[in-house]
Amino acid sequence: MTELPTPQAQRLRRPSWRDSRLIVGVLLVVLSTALGGYVIAHADDTVPMYAAQRTLVPGQALTQADVRRVDVRLGDGVAPYVSAARDIGSDRFVLRGVAEGELIPAAALGTRDQVHTQTVAIQVDTTSASMLVPGARVDVYVSRPTTGQPGTTGVTYAAPERVLQGVTVAALPDTGSVLGGVVSQRPVHLVIPSEGVQSLVADIDRGAKLTLIPTPGSIVRGAS
Question: Domain limits at 69?
Fold first, then answer.
């Protein structure tokens, strides 16, 4: 009977640093460790910035109560916005409108000397004011009286003329003029360029009708 050959036991060899599989394994461990450390270090890589607590209008003196801190991740886009690393401070005025909740651009703030707008209170038809909210941007149309006395039945008006474009609604007080038990007019506070104040006041004094038309894309009441 033929005897089968006896298998020889193989001696285990210690892995060598020259073994490519060992080198790849070590590299994978090092890479995973480094990547995990990077992710953990940057998991909360945010910076504190100021957002508008309420709608800010041009010419408004900014206070700490008008802003709130938000932590955001902006990366390279941090510079154009106002940092919340320190208080707002004094002599900070709004140069252009900022919507509620919006980050405040650094270019939207300046000093009192940089403000070139004034707030004017006007009376408009309630229909004209029905869609408006603070911060809305509107065009102002004026219809000047041509014959008769404003407030009388015989008065006639010229065709409306746009005299101001894209001005900001600062406030909408609740009080208004009542005619026959119905509120016919309501006050609106507008922020307009200083050079346009005199002409607008003159139109108001002569009894002109004022109509406000929201500009395309402006925030209005009831818009989502």
Answer: 47-113
